[in-house]
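Study this:
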Amino acid sequence: MPASTRRQCGAMAAHFRLLEMDPGFRARQRQLERAVQRLAHAPARRRTAIRIPIVVHVVWHSAAENVSLRQIRSQIAVLNRDFRARASDRMQVPAVWRGLVADTGIEFALASRDPDGRPSDGITRTRSERTAFGTGDSIKSAKTGGADAWPSDRYLNLWVGRLSGGLLGYAQFPGGPKRTDGVVITASAFGTSGSAKPPFNRGRTAVHEIGHWLNLRHIWGDSEDCSGSDFVADTPNAAGPNYGKPSFPKVSCANGPSGDMYMNYMDYVDDAAMLLFTPEQAARMHATLQGPRRSFA
């Protein structure tokens, strides 16, 4: 399958589609944001890690898309290293921000039981006649060539298949429909082996998209004029996404001398340049796990 060379995330496209299609979604988003902001600024109390069970729905047409158990395990390993700030390359963070490399206290594991309580390896496999999928959630339904979600209040549903148009992945923010809740990753940007292709072969597309699932926004706030916000204070405002492997400092939006925090997992740089979540991003994720995703806490 052809590999993408420039990161494309479809989370905001999926988000805006839901805002248009679901009359109650906009109101739920406002209520959810107020609750998350309140909880994010409350004193931290939890000391033990939160472990989130994942079910990986492999939806494949070609053999390369039928990712192996080894490749799936490599992705889980990346999630646990990056969310716990244990990746060896974290020391590449510029010195000015090295103190902001946050252990989020969030871990992931393949589900050991299916929704009926039977032993499971946390993986489903679906042979599809579809050769590619977009952000319209067709990969999330057996009726449209994909695989149905497991209960989204008990599992993080992660679909792996081929996405069209160079799209690497997308996620559904909290508050959306339960039957489509989860994360989608293209097979060429999943894990660190098998079908994963550079520059997106270090598993960080899933780190980025699960950040969205836990209610993180892109660090530039998805605006084009420095007016946007990602709702956290310790990521400098940026004019837009960064790509590839930028050189430090990359200044925009009058954020010098240190410039954009382009090495944050919620920017668009290559996997090798993605290096950290910040403490306030971690607080926002935990607020989400106390609020709209409290069934996982």
Q: What stands out?
A: The longest strand covers residues 50-60. The mean pLDDT is 95.
